[in-house]
């Protein structure tokens, strides 16, 4: 098929159903105004059985996932033809020839890569966060075609036209209580060879401007990239808001619950007897993920140091934080739970307590359902006559919805073999692994076969296995961690994260000189992400992180704050 000269180019996707059978092809054209923007990236071909949502929003680990095939494009020059290799890897169906005949909504999507010349000497091509939180299907500047309904019979020519582009992100405006910081990090900029930024949403206490002599403790709420400060609303819930169904929790009206909880928090926040402190939510998306895991990493750079020694002191200086370790606390769930514990362990005197809910694997003997030190394969186990696949996700009844192999295969199709999917397993690998010879993370296991690399596992153990690090270094860490560690997890966590918590608890309870003097608790039959309240469902407690641990934090402050600290209002008068 030919389009007007100098306005379009043809991308031919060639495939033979069998050696002697008829061929099929997909023809993708790109609008003229976008051709100059194409150089390096990942080209995705997506098929979905439904019109809504679009295929790009329907790829998941679940059985209803859209189909995706992906291939890398490198050094494209305008006007050159490109051929999509339909032998490229796909998910959930691995091979194009196995896609059954039927009606599909089909879409083409291009994930743009940029070139980074890092300080470690490696030059890498990767997708760059555009302040959207490293979401490949929403990244500003990525181009795509509208979804098109196609009747597929194995022979049909599919024609797609990429003439859509994701718009820039609108950053939120400051309000009386919530301020927004975008901070250039010298440490990260030096590592990545370009300007790199950290951000934060800052919640200020009541009467902040009226009391310039007050200085406040800092609560650091770790988690995925927040577009604005969440769970805080200065107006009552919308009266005309219609009930929406929340598939995750299986209830109607969760949107109303969220608004009410956010407004209730505001009412507490401004009440005269509520303690005064600062809450921050950090933005630290990067080329790999929506979050850096808040530690130093060979592949991501010194995010731990940049957050602890650049961003946090800057915020404390701008907004009258006390600025000392005894007045900083960390908390969060899932990714944020791992971060809360990790920064406490790696920066033991810079923080005075962590509250880690449903943390990502904190002991790699239980890296979800894999023991990376003893298991030979991440995807399967068994004997000479029978092999079993490892499970990846379950519900509170133990019913399994996806396998660990499938979760990794989805990322392999989306991001290729260099950990560039922007998703969970790839970011763990990017954070924890050493740099490979090609400049990308060295795989913990073969993404296709699941075979585990024991040398990489040894690197993970010594640098990021939090249980092992505490056990190895308790002689020098113990005194600085005493009374600071709090971990909470449902015993039916969807991703089996409770298994690592059991192993960590076993060590913590064995500690002496000093005893760790914290707490580890489990929610009976609670799923991901239980955070300590056994009397309320997850869908409520997850909205209360900023108030849930205040009694325990008050206890730490009573024990450790200097005499000049006001224990009632939580302020230091200078």
- CATH class of the largest domain reads Alpha Beta
Second-tier CATH architecture of the largest domain:
3-Layer(aba) Sandwich
| Overall pLDDT level | 92
CATH topology of the largest domain: Rossmann fold
- What's the story with the biggest beta sheet? 8 strands, antiparallel
Ends: how far apart? 75 Å
Per CATH, the superfamily of the largest domain is: Alpha/Beta hydrolase fold, catalytic domain
Task: Describe the structure in brief.
By secondary structure, the protein is of the alpha+beta class. InterPro entries: AB_hydrolase_fold, Mycobacterial_A85_antigen.
Describe it for me?
The chain is of the alpha+beta class. It folds into 3 domains: 10-165, no CATH class; 178-363 and 465-573, Alpha/Beta hydrolase fold, catalytic domain (Rossmann fold, 3-Layer(aba) Sandwich), CATH 3.40.50.1820; 368-462, no CATH class. Helix content is 24%, strand content 26%. The protein contains 13 helices and 31 strands. Strands 3, 4, 6, 7, 8, 9, 10 and 12 form an 8-stranded antiparallel β-sheet that branches. A hairpin with a 3-residue loop joins β20 and β21 (301-302). α5 packs across α9. The longest helix is centred in the middle third of the chain and has 17 residues, at 254-270. The radius of gyration is 25 Å and the shape is globular. Residues 1-22 have low confidence and may be disordered.
């Amino acid at each position: 098929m030919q389009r007007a000269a100098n306005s379009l180019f043809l991308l031919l996707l060639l495939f033979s159903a069998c050696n002697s059978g008829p061929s099929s092809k997909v023809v993708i054209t790109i609008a003229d105004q976008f051709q100059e923007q194409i150089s390096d990236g990942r080209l995705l071909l997506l098929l979905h059985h439904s019109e809504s949502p679009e295929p790009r929003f329907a790829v998941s680990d679940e059985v209803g996932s859209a189909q995706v095939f992906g291939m890398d494009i490198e050094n494209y020059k305008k006007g050159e033809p490109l051929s999509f290799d339909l032998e490229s890897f796909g998910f959930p169906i691995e091979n194009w020839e196995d896609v059954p005949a039927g009606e599909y909504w089909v879409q083409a999507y291009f994930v743009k890569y940029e070139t980074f010349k890092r300080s470690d000497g490696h030059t890498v091509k990767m997708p760059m966060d555009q302040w959207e939180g490293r979401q490949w299907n929403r990244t500003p500047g990525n181009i795509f075609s509208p979804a098109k309904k196609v009747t597929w019979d194995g022979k049909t020519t599919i024609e797609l036209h990429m003439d859509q582009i994701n718009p820039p992100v609108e950053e939120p405006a400051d309000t009386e209580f919530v301020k927004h910081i975008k901070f250039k990090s010298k440490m990260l900029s030096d590592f990545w060879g370009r300007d790199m930024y950290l951000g934060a949403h800052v919640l200020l206490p009541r009467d902040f401007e009226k009391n310039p002599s007050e200085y406040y403790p800092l609560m650091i709420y770790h988690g995925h990239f927040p577009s604005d400060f969440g769970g805080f609303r200065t107006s009552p819930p919308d009266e005309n808001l219609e009930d929406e169904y929340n598939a995750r929790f299986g209830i109607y009206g969760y949107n109303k619950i969220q608004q009410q909880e956010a407004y209730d928090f505001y009412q507490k926040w401004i009440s005269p007897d509520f303690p005064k402190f600062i809450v921050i939510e950090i933005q630290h998306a990067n080329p790999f993920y929506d979050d850096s895991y808040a530690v130093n990493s060979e592949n991501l750079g010194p995010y731990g140091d940049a957050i602890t020694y650049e961003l946090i002191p800057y915020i404390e200086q701008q907004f009258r934080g006390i600025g000392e370790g005894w007045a900083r606390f960390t908390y969060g769930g899932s990714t944020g739970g791992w971060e809360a514990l990790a920064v406490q362990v790696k920066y033991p005197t810079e923080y005075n307590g962590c509250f880690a809910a449903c943390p990502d694997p904190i002991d790699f003997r239980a890296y979800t359902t894999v023991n990376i030190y003893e298991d030979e394969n991440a995807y399967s186990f068994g004997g000479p006559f029978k092999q079993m696949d490892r499970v990846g996700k379950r519900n509170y009844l133990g019913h399994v919805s996806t396998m660990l192999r499938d979760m990794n295969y989805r990322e392999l199709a989306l991001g290729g073999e260099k950990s560039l999917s922007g998703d969970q397993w790839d970011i763990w690998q990017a954070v924890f692994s050493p740099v490979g010879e090609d400049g990308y993370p060295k795989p913990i296991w073969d993404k296709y076969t699941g075979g585990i690399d024991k040398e990489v596992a040894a690197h993970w153990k010594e640098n990021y296995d939090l249980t092992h690090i505490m056990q190895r270094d308790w002689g020098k860490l113990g005194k600085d961690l005493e009374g600071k560690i709090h971990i909470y997890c449902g015993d039916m966590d969807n991703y089996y994260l409770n298994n690592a918590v059991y192993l960590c608890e076993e060590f913590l309870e064995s500690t002496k000189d000093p005893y760790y003097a914290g707490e580890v608790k489990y929610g009976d039959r609670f799923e991901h992400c239980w955070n300590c309240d056994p009397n309320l469902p997850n869908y409520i407690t997850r909205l209360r992180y900023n108030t849930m641990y205040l009694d325990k934090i008050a206890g730490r402050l009573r024990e450790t704050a200097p005499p000049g600290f006001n224990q009632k209002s939580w302020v230091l008068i200078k």
